């Protein structure tokens, strides 16, 4: 593969710099929390700086090709190599992971959840960052798998140690679910490896040779990958870990989980499953589409039944990822673009929603929708931010969410050649109905929590006045970039589409557009 | 006139800076919105100055554009298709194809631009007084300004996606503004209902846009070099003979569903009256004159799609006409039983929107657009008048029966502007409504939709009736409640014996109440009786009333062809235009500014060529001197059409006289009825509840036998209007609202059930089941795990021994 | 040949070792019993090595001795720590691993 840039070190540095930070932090005494935090944030900022450098150096005219490619011997016994690269599909997610990590760390400055121990908490986040960034640049299946799994442990500990009351159950459920998926995924990877002649785990090689595998075998291999990725997305009916994990996870965990971790699954579909196994993808597409639209409606219904704000947002993720998967299942450029855009948009918006939910919890010590009311009276700024995010989340044009939603609906009208048009048109209508339900549950949530007068319990002079304050400094620093990004991408989506579109075109080569 | 960059040797179409840069118009308020959000609270006028200045700037630019557009149109002959000024920049891309954002400026968009900018300016000025001291004054102006940005953006939209952007932004602002006083549950519920209902309609917008895009994209890319989202592309495609009838019908119906939601058409109109929970300037701007016409605008904007998709002129009924016609009657009947003045106006708006839709559905494109134009002025004026009343005369009450009456003495300006606007709304010659509404009715009949012409006339009758009733209750009769200086209508006793000649006495009464009301009022206006509002409120009223009176003359076929200016300026001409020049830049998908700039003169040249070479104007139909082209009836050869050939009903005085007569009949009947009901009823009905009034009316009917003529009318009106309107209202409140609520409740219930039973038990149960069984298995083996090293050793060796045994056995 | 006797010796030592591991409660004695087991295996290895005339068995035996030395080293260290912490080397006191 042609190397488009000489800076092939940037990806390695950008990915592993957090681990260097971890090493340094190991030598900081546990008691010195401020120093731990500062070092961690410094590391994340340095990582982000590398990320910005990557963005600057990225050749936008060739966004469809792999750039900053680096390849080195790694485990030659199983013909796996250290093979990384970045194209238009990876770039936004790669960068997003860096941004989110830094913002979450800033937010954590005065929000370390109980039982404290900032050092360990920050170390986990840095490890997470390496895993997430690595997943988005890996060009080798074994490497991908390693990074993919690397993410699991820090998140497990984050939920299990810093989580809510039911944290052990939730963390275990999260871990087992994902491990189960990963196991099947690994089997699928191995089958792929052997079926293509046991020559290489490199994704480009597999894309070239994967199409030659017999169709039935392809379908089975795809099934294994499907389970692995679908659990992570999560698609109906593999989603039940998500509400628990989100509800129990600390705010930071929820944000990272929603913003980045869920995207590992969809990214896997786009990067690995579909280009390598095009025949199987075509066979599976209607079923993926079906599960996606079920997820859209089902997630929305789930939201309507919730009494807990955070759980509601978690369920809304199921619905939103349904749009992403619907876009992917059409196997068209509109759908893929929508899916990729939707992933980033969902990361920004739902991440923000979880931030807000965390801050609400911090102030009111509850997320019971019934007990919350009149947030706009007590904390106007936080209330408006919640409203803004709700609007973005329901897909209002002019904000980022729209560009993940509308093109996905659009694409379902005309799926890739060979797919059943009627079926997908039904999906389109169902998905469009989903937008109304989304408006329903989000506005319903907003009406009950933000409008009206504060409930008796939390009204002024009832002992909660000290806790209930408007958005503070660290929250502003952490949130402003996200809020700006939501508006900027919403107003001028070409910023992202110009990067995504060429890469999507390359990915879909096997489907003839 | 500023010379355009497109000056070429044979330029026949003039352009100008304002036209070329009309896309700036929505950007101005958008910028102002951010300024208000970030700096508004620190400004001396709390941010309202940004809003007002931006709206004035937008107004100036719109008028400039209008002037230059007129120049452009006047420069060519009557039949030449006047090319809109289209510019486009890449907004997003897909599969290497740029999809644009930009402007599509033609007569229609300029008309609406002027209306929106003008009314927004007035309403913002009005609001500085009306909402003076409001707790969220700055937010209010931010939302108003953002609304204007959204609406203006929708109007200049070059393509469907940009249009959706503006469309939904308006929905958002509508939500924020209806729920402006969100502390009260009713307001936030109304806001939610509005957003939710329009959003339901928007399913159609998303689906319709998708359907049309895929149906049209290949053709438009090949022929015009634009995407299937482009409004120009869609228009030309619809008339090209390329679309399959299924695709275009589905697309048109889907889009129209969105219009039903947004423009408050039956059966999705229920949100609009509830939306009156917002501040009155909001009702005036969003929910009468501008936002709610978005649906009508959309139909007018991509009219060829509806023309072909709905088979307009083809049958005696189509979906648009049907919905429009039903809406007119249903809403007008409802307006008759309202006590809240704003609700009367809201139902009236719904009804008038029905006219516009019916007009569009019957091919009366120009009258419908003209009605948007005139309706905006008089309806905004009526709403602002209602606001003026509540602000200065009725203690923020909108209840006509309880808190108004006899106000014409106290509020002469409000009264006279109200009367002018009411006459305009009723369609009395020579007020503006006459020239638009009557044209709609006339053209609907002329196009062969005879039944709907009668519906329109009946609607006009009802309009006259309910507006008379509202006027009577508000400005005539005796002052009641707050209007009489009281704050509680319970104290209302001594006036029972006065008839409608006793206004003077009431005036005194009101003043008498003034003094004693002062101590028990809990409101800053409490110490005043009714009085005229200040200049900030009355000046916008006067301006709007002037336009309500005069704007009709912009297109007055009654005085001959010379007066049909709007037709000349706004209606797109149905000419077959050559596309050879346009097809060239098909490779340059971007439609960048450069391409657009260079394209224009080439295109003009060709349209000139098409002008002379075109085959299609062979028969110049002798119908008011209009030329006929085949656009809309036959597949155009050698070019494309951007607009179908529309029919225009020739103006006939006897028809106009007939409809004005019907209006007067409505007014007179209603007046007499009102006098009976509201002035006389007190004699007999003191202490009777609301429900008994129907009975009581029967009694008063008996008691007042000597008004024989009136009584006949009363019987007829009572037996027809009331059961129908009450029935419709019942249907509205119980069936339609019931369906909405029922759907909501049952969805909630289903959701709860699914969540409890499927999600938590079945799906989760399966997962937990796997875990539990593993746990049980582990539990059974638990004793083995004794922690005793010796036992472990024994187990180890035991296992080894068994293994050895097995080996031995196998080997033997 | 003497193979049978060697194997018999090995078997006896092994049984003594197993008996010790299972029955004795003293950690040191258990360790010694493990040594016995390992050495019984060594005897077997050497016996077969002699019979086959190859050096494989010797090599294995040497490995086993080395490993056993290490194992005893670690084991005794653990016993020592155990004694320090609990003042006892009784294995019955160690039941933290009970599931």
TrEMBL record, chain A:
Please state every residue range assigned to the domain named NADH:ubiquinone oxidoreductase chain 4 N-terminal. 68-128
- Report the principal subcellular site: membrane
Give an example GO molecular function: ubiquinone binding
InterPro entries, sorted: NADH4_N, NADH_Q_OxRdtase_chainM/4, NADH_UbQ_OxRdtase, ND/Mrp_TM
Tell me where in this chain the NADH:quinone oxidoreductase/Mrp antiporter transmembrane domain is found.
Answer: 138-422
Q: Which GO terms describe its cellular component?
A: membrane
Name its cellular compartments.
Answer: Membrane
Q: Name one Pfam family in it.
A: Oxidored_q5_N
> Which sequence ranges are marked TM in the entry?
9-28, 34-56, 91-109, 121-138, 144-162, 174-194, 219-242, 254-278, 284-305, 312-332, 338-360, 381-404, 424-446, 476-495
- Statement: the UniProt record of this protein carries the keyword Methyltransferase: no
According to its UniProt entry, one GO biological process term is: ATP synthesis coupled electron transport
Q: Which family does it belong to?
A: Belongs to the complex I subunit 4 family.
Q: What is this protein called?
A: Unannotated protein
Species source reads: freshwater metagenome
Q: What is the lineage of its organism?
A: unclassified sequences, metagenomes, ecological metagenomes
Automatic annotation (TrEMBL), chain B:
Q: Does the keyword Transmembrane apply?
A: yes
- In this protein, which residues make up the domain named NADH:quinone oxidoreductase/Mrp antiporter transmembrane? 157-463
An example GO BP is:
ATP synthesis coupled electron transport
Quote the biased-composition stretches of kind Basic and acidic residues, using this chain's numbering. 485-531, 603-627
What keywords is this UniProt entry annotated with? Answer: Membrane, Transmembrane, Transmembrane helix
The keyword Transmembrane helix is assigned to this record: yes
| Gene Ontology terms, MF aspect | NADH dehydrogenase (ubiquinone) activity; NADH dehydrogenase activity
Bilayer topology reads:
Multi-pass membrane protein
| Gene3D superfamilies with a match to the protein in the record | 1.20.5.2700
NADH-Ubiquinone oxidoreductase (complex I) chain 5 N-terminal domain location, by residue? 91-141
One Pfam family this chain carries?
Proton_antipo_M
Cell compartments where the protein resides: Membrane
Record field: transmembrane? 23-40, 52-70, 107-126, 138-157, 163-182, 194-216, 236-261, 282-304, 316-337, 344-366, 372-389, 410-435, 447-467, 535-554, 653-675, 792-810
GO annotations of cellular component type: membrane
Q: Where is this region: Disordered?
A: 484-531, 588-627
**Protein name in the entry:** Unannotated protein
What taxonomic classification does the UniProt entry list for its organism? unclassified sequences, metagenomes, ecological metagenomes
From TrEMBL, chain C:
Provide GO CC annotations from the record. Answer: NADH dehydrogenase complex
Q: Which InterPro entries match?
A: NADH_UbQ_OxRdtase_chain4L/K, NUOK/Mnh_C1-like
Tell me where the transmembrane regions lie.
6-22, 29-48, 60-83
Which BP terms in the Gene Ontology apply to this protein?
ATP synthesis coupled electron transport
Q: Where in the cell is it found?
A: Membrane
For this chain, one GO molecular function annotation is: oxidoreductase activity, acting on NAD(P)H
Membrane-topology annotation of the record? Multi-pass membrane protein
Q: Please verify whether the record's keywords include Transmembrane helix.
A: yes
* Alphabetized Pfam families for the sequence: Oxidored_q2
What are the entry keywords?
Membrane, Transmembrane, Transmembrane helix, Transport
| Family that this chain belongs to | Belongs to the complex I subunit 4L family.
Name this polypeptide is given: Unannotated protein
């Amino acid at each position: 593969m042609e190397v488009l840039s000489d800076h092939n070190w940037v990806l390695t540095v950008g990915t592993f710099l957090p681990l260097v930070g971890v090493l340094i932090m190991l030598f900081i005494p546990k008691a010195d929390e401020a120093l731990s935090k500062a070092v961690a944030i410094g590391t994340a900022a340095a990582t982000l700086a590398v990320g910005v450098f990557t963005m600057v150096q990225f050749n936008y005219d060739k966004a469809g090709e792999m750039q900053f490619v680096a390849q080195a011997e790694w485990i030659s016994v199983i013909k796996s190599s250290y093979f990384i690269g970045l194209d238009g599909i990876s770039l936004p997610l790669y960068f997003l992971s860096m941004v989110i990590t830094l913002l979450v760390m800033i937010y954590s400055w005065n929000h370390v959840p109980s039982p404290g121990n900032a050092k360990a908490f920050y170390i986990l986040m840095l490890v997470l960052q390496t895993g997430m960034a690595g997943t988005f640049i890996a060009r080798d299946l074994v490497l991908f798998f390693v990074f993919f799994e690397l993410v699991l442990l820090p998140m497990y500990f984050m939920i299990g140690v810093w989580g809510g009351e039911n944290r052990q159950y939730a963390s275990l459920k999260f871990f087992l679910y994902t491990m189960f998926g990963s196991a099947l995924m690994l089997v699928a990877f191995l089958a792929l490896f052997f079926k293509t002649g046991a020559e290489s785990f490199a994704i480009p090689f597999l894309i070239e040779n994967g199409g030659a595998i017999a169709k039935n075998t392809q379908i089975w291999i795809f099934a294994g990958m499907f389970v692995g990725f679908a659990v992570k997305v999560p698609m109906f009916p593999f989603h039940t870990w998500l509400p628990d994990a989100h509800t129990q996870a600390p705010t930071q965990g929820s944000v990272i989980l929603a913003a980045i971790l869920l995207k590992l699954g969809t990214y896997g579909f786009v990067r690995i499953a579909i280009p390598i196994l095009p025949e199987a993808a075509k066979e599976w597409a209607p079923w993926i589409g079906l599960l996606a639209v079920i997820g859209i409606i089902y997630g929305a219904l789930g939201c309507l039944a919730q009494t807990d704000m955070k759980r509601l947002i978690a369920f809304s993720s199921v619905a939103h990822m349904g749009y992403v998967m619907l876009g992917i299942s059409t196997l068209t450029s509109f759908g893929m673009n929508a899916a990729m855009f939707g992933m980033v948009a969902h990361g920004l918006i739902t991440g923000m929603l979880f931030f807000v939910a965390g801050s609400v919890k911090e102030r009111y010590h509850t997320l019971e929708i019934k007990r919350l009311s009149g947030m706009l009276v007590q904390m106007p700024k936080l209330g408006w931010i919640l409203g803004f995010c709700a609007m973005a989340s329901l897909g209002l044009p002019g904000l980022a969410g729209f560009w993940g939603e509308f093109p996905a609906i659009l694409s379902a009208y005309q799926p890739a050649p060979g797919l059943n048009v009627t079926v997908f048109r039904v999906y389109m209508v169902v998905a469009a109905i989903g937008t109304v339900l989304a408006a329903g549950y989000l506005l319903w949530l907003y009406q009950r929590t933000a409008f009206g007068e504060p409930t008796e319990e939390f009204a002024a002079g009832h002992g909660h006045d000290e806790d209930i304050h408007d958005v503070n400094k660290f929250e502003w620093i952490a949130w402003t970039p996200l809020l700006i990004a939501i508006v900027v991408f919403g107003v001028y989506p070409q910023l992202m589409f110009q990067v995504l579109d060429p890469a999507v075109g390359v990915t879909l080569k096997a489907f003839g557009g | 006139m500023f010379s355009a960059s497109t000056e070429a040797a044979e330029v026949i179409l003039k352009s100008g800076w304002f036209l070329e840069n009309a896309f700036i118009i929505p950007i101005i308020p958008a910028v102002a919105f951010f300024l208000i959000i970030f700096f508004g609270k620190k400004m001396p006028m709390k941010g309202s100055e940004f809003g007002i200045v931006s709206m004035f700037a937008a107004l100036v630019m719109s008028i400039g554009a209008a002037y230059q557009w007129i120049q452009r149109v006047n420069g060519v002959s009557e039949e030449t298709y006047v090319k809109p000024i289209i510019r486009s920049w890449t907004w997003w891309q897909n599969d290497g194809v740029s999809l644009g954002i930009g402007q599509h400026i033609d007569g229609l968009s300029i008309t609406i631009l002027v209306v929106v900018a003008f009314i927004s300016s007035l309403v913002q000025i009005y609001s500085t007084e009306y909402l003076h001291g409001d707790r969220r004054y700055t937010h209010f102006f931010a939302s108003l300004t953002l609304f204007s940005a959204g609406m203006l953006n929708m109007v200049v939209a070059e393509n469907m996606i940009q249009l959706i952007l503006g469309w939904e932004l308006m929905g958002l602002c509508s939500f924020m503004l209806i729920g402006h006083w969100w502390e009260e549950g009713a307001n936030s519920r109304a806001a939610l209902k509005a957003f939710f209902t329009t959003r339901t309609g928007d399913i159609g917008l998303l689906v319709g846009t998708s359907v049309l895009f895929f149906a049209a994209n290949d053709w438009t890319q090949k022929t015009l070099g634009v995407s299937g989202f482009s409004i120009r592309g869609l228009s030309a495609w619809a008339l090209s003979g390329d679309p399959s009838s299924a695709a275009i019908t589905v697309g048109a119906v889907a889009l129209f569903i969105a219009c039903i939601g947004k423009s408050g058409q039956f059966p999705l109109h229920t949100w609009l009256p509830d939306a009156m929970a917002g501040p009155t300037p909001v009702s005036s701007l969003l929910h009468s004159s501008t936002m709610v016409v978005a649906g009508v605008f959309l139909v007018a904007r991509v009219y060829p799609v509806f023309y072909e998709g709905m088979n307009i002129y083809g049958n005696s009924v189509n979906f648009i006409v049907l919905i429009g016609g039903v809406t007119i009657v249903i809403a007008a009947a409802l307006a008759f039983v309202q006590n809240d003045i704003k609700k009367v106006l809201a139902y009236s708006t719904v009804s008038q929107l029905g006219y516009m839709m019916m007009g569009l559905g019957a091919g009366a494109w120009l009258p419908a657009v003209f009605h948007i134009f005139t309706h905006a002025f008089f309806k905004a004026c009526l709403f602002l008048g209602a606001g003026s009343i509540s602000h200065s005369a009725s203690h923020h009450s909108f209840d006509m029966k309880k808190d108004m009456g006899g106000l014409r003495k106290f509020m002469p300006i409000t009264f006279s502007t109200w009367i002018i606007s009411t006459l305009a709304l009723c369609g009395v010659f020579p007020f503006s409504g006459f020239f638009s509404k009557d044209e709609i009715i006339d053209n609907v009949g002329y196009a062969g939709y005879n039944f709907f012409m009668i519906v329109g006339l009946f609607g006009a009758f009802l309009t006259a009736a309910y507006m008379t009733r509202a006027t009577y209750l508000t400005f005539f009769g005796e002052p009641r409640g707050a209007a009489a200086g009281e704050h509680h209508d319970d104290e209302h006793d001594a006036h029972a014996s006065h008839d409608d000649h006793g206004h003077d006495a009431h005036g005194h009464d009101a003043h008498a109440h003034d003094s004693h009301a002062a101590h028990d009022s809990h409101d800053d206006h409490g110490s005043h009786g009714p009085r005229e509002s200040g200049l900030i409120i009355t000046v916008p009223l006067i301006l709007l009333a002037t336009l309500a009176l005069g704007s009709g003359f912009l297109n007055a076929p009654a005085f001959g062809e010379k007066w049909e200016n709007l037709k000349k300026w706004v209606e797109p001409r149905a000419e077959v235009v050559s596309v050879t020049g346009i097809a060239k830049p098909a490779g340059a998908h971007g439609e960048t500014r450069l391409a657009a700039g260079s394209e224009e003169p080439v295109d003009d040249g060709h349209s000139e060529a098409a002008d002379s070479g075109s085959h299609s104007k062979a028969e110049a139909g002798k119908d008011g001197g209009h030329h006929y082209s085949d656009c809309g009836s036959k597949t155009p050869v050698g070019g494309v059409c951007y607009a179908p050939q529309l029919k225009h009903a020739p103006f006939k005085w006897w028809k106009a006289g007939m409809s004005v007569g019907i209006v007067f009949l409505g007014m007179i009947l209603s007046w007499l009825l009102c006098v009976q009901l509201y002035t006389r009823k007190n004699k007999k009905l003191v202490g009777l509840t609301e429900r008994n009034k129907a009975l009581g009316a029967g009694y008063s009917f008996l008691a007042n036998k000597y008004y024989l003529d009136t009584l006949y009318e009363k019987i007829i009106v009572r037996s027809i209007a009331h059961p129908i309107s009450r029935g419709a209202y019942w249907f509205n409140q119980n069936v339609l609202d019931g369906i909405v609520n029922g759907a909501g409740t049952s969805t909630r219930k289903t959701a709860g059930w699914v969540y409890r039973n499927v999600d938590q038990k079945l799906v989760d149960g399966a997962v937990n089941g796997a875990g539990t069984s593993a746990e049980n298995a582990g539990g059974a083996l638990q004793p083995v795990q004794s922690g005793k090293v010796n036992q472990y050793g024994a187990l180890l060796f035991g296992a080894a021994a068994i293994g050895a045994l097995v080996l031995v056995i196998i080997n033997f | 040949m003497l193979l049978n006797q060697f194997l018999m010796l090995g078997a006896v030592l092994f049984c003594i070792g197993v008996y010790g591991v299972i029955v004795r409660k003293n950690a040191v004695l258990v360790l010694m019993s493990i040594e016995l087991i390992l050495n019984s295996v060594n005897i077997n290895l050497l016996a077969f090595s002699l019979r086959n005339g190859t050096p494989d068995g010797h090599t294995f035996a040497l490995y086993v001795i080395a490993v056993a030395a290490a194992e005893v080293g670690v084991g005794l260290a653990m016993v020592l720590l155990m004694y320090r912490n609990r003042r006892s080397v009784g294995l019955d006191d160690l039941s933290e691993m009970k599931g």
